[in-house]
Specification:
Blueprint: E1 2-9, E2 19-25, H1 28-38, E3 41-46
Antiparallel strand pairs: 1-2, 1-3
Length: 61
Amino acid sequence: MKVYVLSGDTYCGSWGSEISLFGVFSNKDEADKLADEMQCDISVVNIDEVEEPKRLGGYCE
């Protein structure tokens, strides 16, 4: 089963990043609708399975 994870960078400072989780949905249409409204990203994740690490965003120097 797939879930749709909504996340985005909410850091407002000059340097850095802060990734926030806005929601996890089982319905792609609902996730797409909210992602458009909130201007955030969607990551598709299979549940109950081991996967490679997913990068949700961030900042490194």
